[in-house]
Amino acid sequence: MGIAHKWNDFMWQKIKPYRSSIILLSALMLGGLIGILFPVFALKLKPLGQIFLNLLFMIIVPLVAISVTSSIAHMTDLKKLGAILATIFLVSIIMAIIPTLGIIGLASIYDPAQGVTLDLHQGVSTGSGDMDFVNLLTTNDFVGLLSKSNILALIIMSVISGIAIGQSGKEGEKVSAMLDSLNTVIMKIVSILMLVAPVGLGAYFASTMASQDTELLSTFARAIGLFLIAAALYYTLGSTLYAWLGGGINGVKQFWRNAIEPSATALGTSSSLASLPVNIRAANKMGIKEEIADICLPLLVNLNKGGAAMTTALKIVFIYSILGLDFTADVFALTVLISVLSAFVIGGVPGGAFLGEIFIVTTLGLPIEVIPILVIIGAVTDAPATVINVIHDLNATQIIERINGKRYAKSKVLDTKANT
């Protein structure tokens, strides 16, 4: 009995990090089955799902504005570090763009939808013609920022506001403290809404699948399989390249000697934050300067999310394919932008459940019926995406040390002499 009890505890600890994803995926699978087997009943469930999605839409503007502004305000507390902070931002952006372009290229060669089309019984014209990037990036008055349709403009203004707060001294600290309190309340609201997420999304997915061909389900497997292949290639080849850029052949050797433990932790916890202590220890074993690792890794946890960028890009390409929309040059550019922002800003918003999905739908003008589909892809790919996020934080730290190591060491010596 004791052995059985210990085994149960062991298994529970293993699956606990995935509990919410397992529940959500189970609800979506059940909803899909109900939609296929009992379509008339499933269509009656749509208002239930619509209520849940409307509740998310109602909270999305304050969630983005407060969370992003608060996060950026804290980051600019390190503005005295100047060059090293700028390098962290630059490396994070580049390491989000590379996997985004890679997954778009693979998805273009091997279309995961394979001609299967999602029939929503409504015209969808997004992706055709020229996109108005002026209206996507800005609004002509403040009231426009309060609409979920202008979420991209809201993020840009939130980033600018966060920088301004961080540079406003003591007065800015007062505003930052207030934003922290508001952020805590917003996150609590989100956690309350998430209690009914399995029911709401399950109901909505049931109504979506009620009139669809069962072959649509096979497209999920192809999309996820494509992601796993891309993730494996990027994990091995990408990490090796980054390690070489950060430290040459010796950097590659040191990286792979110490990469397994952070990778296993990320896979087991599905959390970049939970993997941070292991990542810091691995960085120390690799010989990275402790002061560099202590500065870079905590920031990179929120900023450097190449796995999240890959997932976002795959979602967009996949949805455009199953909706039968043209993936134009404008859509391509916007996909890269959304993917980078998802990794760079949205990925750093704590508890921002479904924020990425809503960001995609509202920015591209897609029908909200696709949100459960995006959630499925995101939930299944979460663990491998987290592994990439975590392990490439080490690579980014290697590169940042190579770029700024001597300069930082010199400034530290000068500061020490000035203090003495």
Overview features:
Proton glutamate symport protein, 17 helices, mainly alpha, disordered C terminus
Q: Using the CA coordinates, give the radius of gyration.
A: 22 Å
C-alpha end-to-end distance: 65 Å
Mean pLDDT: 80
Query: Stretches where pLDDT falls below 50 for ≥5 residues?
Result: 348-352, 413-420
Helix content: over 70%
Gross geometry: globular
CATH architecture label:
Orthogonal Bundle
Order of helices and strands: HHHHHHHHHHHHHHHHH
**How many strand segments?**
0
What is the CATH C level class, in words? Mainly Alpha
Total tally of structural domains: 1
Give me the secondary-structure category: mainly alpha
> How big a fraction of the residues is strand?
under 5%
Q: Number of helix segments?
A: 17
Transmembrane segments: 21-42, 48-69, 81-110, 142-165, 185-207, 219-245, 317-346, 358-380
GO molecular function, one term: symporter activity
InterPro entries: Na-dicarboxylate_symporter (IPR001991), Na:dicarbo_symporter_sf (IPR036458)
Protein name: Sodium:dicarboxylate symporter
Structure, described:
The chain is an all-alpha fold. The chain has one domain: Proton glutamate symport protein. Helix content is 77%, strand content 0%. Helix 11 packs across helix 17 and helix 12 (276-285) crosses helix 17. InterPro entries: Na-dicarboxylate_symporter, Na:dicarbo_symporter_sf. Its main location: membrane. This is Sodium:dicarboxylate symporter. It is a multi-pass membrane protein. It is found in: Cell membrane.
